Amino acid sequence: MGLVQEIDYGTPASKSENMVTITVDGFDVTVPEGTSVMRASMEAGISIPKLCATDMVDAFGSCRLCLVEIEGRNGTPSSCTTPVVPGMVVHTQTGRLKDLRRGVMELYISDHPLDCLTCAANGDCELQDMAGAVGLRDVRYGYDGENHVFAKTRGALNDSVANIRYMPKDESNPYFTYDPSKCIVCSRCVRACEEVQGTFALTIEGRGFDSRVSPGMHQNFLESECVSCGACVQACPTGTLVEKSVIEIGVPERSVVTTCAYCGVGCSFKAEMRGDELVRMVPYKDGKANRGHSCVKGRFAYGYASHKERILNPMIREKITDPWREVTWEEAFAHVASEFRRIQYQYGREAIGGITSSRCTNEETYLVQKLIRQGFRNNNVDTCARVCHSPTGYGLGQAFGTSAGTQDFDSVEHSDVVMVIGANPAAAHPVFASRMKKRLRQGAKLIVIDPRRTEMVKSPHVEAEHHLALRPGTNVAVVTALAHVIVTEGLFDEAFIRERCDWSEFEDYAEFVSDPKRSPEEVEKFTGVPAEEIRGAARLYATGGNGAIYYGLGVTEHSQGSTTVMGIANLAMLTGNIGRKGVGVNPLRGQNNVQGSCDMGSFPHEFPGYRHVSTDAVRETFEKLWGVELSDEPGLRIPNMLDAAVEGSFRGIYIQGEDILQSDPDTKHVSAGLAAMECVVVHDLFLNETARFAHVFLPGSTFLEKDGTFTNAERRINRVRKVMAPKNGLADWEVTQKLAQAMGLDWNYAHPSQVMDEIAATTPSFAKVSYEYLEQMGSVQWPCNEAAPEGTPIVHMDGFVRGKGKFIRTEYVPTDEKTGPRFPLLLTTGRILSQYNVGAQTRRTENVVWHDEDVLEIHPHDAEQRGIREGDWVRLTSRAGETTLRAQITDRVAPGVVYTTFHHPDTQANVITTDFSDWATNCPEYKVTAVQVGPSNGPSEWQRDYQELSRQTRRIAPLEAAE
Hints:
Elements lengths: L18 E6 L2 E6 L4 H7 L25 E2 L18 E3 L3 H16 L15 H8 L18 E3 L5 E3 L13 E3 L9 H10 L5 E3 L6 E3 L16 H5 L5 E3 H6 L4 E6 L8 E7 L2 E7 L12 H5 L14 E2 L8 E2 L2 H19 L4 E5 L5 H14 L5 E3 L6 H10 L17 E5 L3 H4 L1 H12 L3 E5 L8 E2 L2 E2 L2 E3 L6 H14 L5 H7 L2 H11 L6 H8 L3 H13 L3 E5 L1 H4 L4 H15 L9 E3 L6 H6 L6 E2 L3 E2 L3 H11 L11 H10 L4 E5 L3 H4 L3 H9 L3 E6 L11 E4 L8 E4 L4 E5 L11 H11 L9 H11 L8 H7 L1 E3 L43 E6 L24 E4 L1 H6 L7 E6 L3 E8 L7 E5 L27 E7 L5 H13 L5 H4 L1
Parallel strand pairs: 1-4, 16-17, 16-27, 18-19, 18-23, 19-22, 23-24, 27-28, 28-29, 33-37, 34-36
Antiparallel strand pairs: 1-2, 3-4, 5-6, 7-10, 8-9, 11-12, 12-13, 14-15, 14-29, 20-21, 25-26, 30-31, 31-32, 33-38, 34-37, 35-36, 35-38
Helix pairs in contact: 8-25, 9-25, 9-26, 10-19, 13-17, 13-19, 16-17, 22-24
């Protein structure tokens, strides 16, 4: 098994449908109009030497190595910048070209270190390869003159003197190094930063012989605007930019294509290995979600997989005050099975349940919900989507008939207007954000609806036409006001509505939104958004061409989350922006497989494929296969499980790959629920916050150690491939299977592919999916069945899944969480680029260099009123609890609004959040909490108690003591 080879065609593919035929070195080749001569030659199997060209960025034509001769034309044009024309005859190997290329390469080598044997890029260097390709055997120019290679050079009297042109290595970035002496100024890294990533952090500094890549004026990489996405490292053709892991371990020898286990974008990567050691993760160009790009997390933050804090042996304890005792897998499974049987015998069948993981594979999630339904004989199963995107499932299901995004990510390339609501893709979904920003730089318009001035509002070469900085909790009012403008000004698409929706429902909805009390002028009074901004945004979305809406947790994590989702669906239907490229309603999913965990039946009221447990025919399908009678009553949601635990009727839980104590709202309530249970089983990589209340710990496996599939935010089913053996001995699906066997179930899966076969046999939207088919197709988007054998990139093209699109009234109901004299500010929460979710993975990597603690963003006016200065400790207090953290004074938040992230357990931001939740789905209202902020001199009493409890509950007994 070697490295997965990818062909670099030198320039991007043309999307033209007109075909052109040319002749290259006597061979005819037919390519799309607009294709470069270089790419056409590659299509014919003829490789032209190149250094500045790569197919991830536009042609540049600076290296002068790819020269060709074209019959009928003078000179030797660069093949990367020369487009094909019909009948063109190209010669790539002539005596003149050979001499020119050797001369060019000789000049490059004359100012380049000849340390190939000790260079980290040896064997992975395009400069090295091209020197061989052009036949360079001698370099006539030495280092006696000016050079960038040596720190010291010989003077006139042969004394060594400082070389003023030498620049030292920049080792500041934790993941890669920059060696200017090896830079050939091809600009590939600069262009990748601009065209692929869209950060514009790099530039060429100096002129002529003194020109070099620079991350900023007199800045190193760490201090610069660089976001460590790795695009520059990937683009570099020499050893100038190299991963530190390659320097340490060596050039990889084999690779496996797999899928990133961070956010819902679902990037494909080549995991490049040396033996069983992971050298680096390289974005895979054929990955249909990321198209060869990556972010700092997926590209570099994989070190948690081998972190010293990872637990590799099962552990048991009688009481949470006891130290942990390491046991065998067999003892752990027998103990859990015995305890769960005892609890059900003592308290009833409904007394136990489970939580599936949005970080585990589809197959593993399917098995957990199967264990609960078949083994526990109830529907007490839930997932973290409960606390993030459950309103998406409900709202889109009601309006369109299916509870997932309508488009693929490629669709944004066809958008003319992009509306981003309650999401910050630049921080939470950065690879998709790069694609979105590229389209915006090409001329699409942007509308941002967010209380904060996020990175999306203004960044290099991108600025929102409208930023609706609404007061937290008023989403429904603003979205309905947008609809008010579209309806009252006659901007709606009547033909689309008459054809695709119920006209009488539209008339009812139009009457509702036309009420003057829903006008922008009235809404401005309590949302804080100027009426003209709302009107301008509504007109732009309705009349600006293809309009696409992307939204995140700032929409769903509210008491009216489901209502806002339905309001967004109304906007799309009103304007006909549904069912084709460039439009649609797209939830940006937070975790790598939160879409898949929902698809797999992780909700207490639904079987896989979003089919209600009360549906007899669906139940019969699973009863026949599983050999048991299944309950037709929806089970308990996560908040209900915790309530029932406090009441005494719910006593045991199996939690796979979720940290509900840190991620769920009202931490004290979660603590009380977990503390009341008699058998808490945590199945995870680390002793997370929830594990402090666990009685059994089952060590988990990382995405690098298992086979399976993830489903991303665009419904794309991607393969996850085993890169190395599980360090704990078992993949997560095997742990669940052995637990099921201990409970008496006859499970005998030999491989996750067999689990997918069962999913396909029972779930219509997955009917044609198999591992063999995914190998053939690369990936597919569900529904994938006989009606859509190649998957469904865009849904609702010919009609809505539910038949007619449904307009639903969206009455604004203010949240019960009110500000007042005691709690005058509103807290809202979100994510940051370098950290992920509860931080269990990213906090155990070098990403802490960028964000080692959660901070509280507060407006200068609010800070001044309270005597708070930058970096001060502040006490953050709500009706639910209090915590302390450091202040960051910024006008990114409006007066009256404060903001923090939730990545660090030391802060425990959720001890502040209330237990209010979405009316339809119980999704917590994380985004609106009334708080007060005041000076503090350090951690709160609750934080100190929490840290002590953390220390006590993480003790592991020495092996000899355990025996």
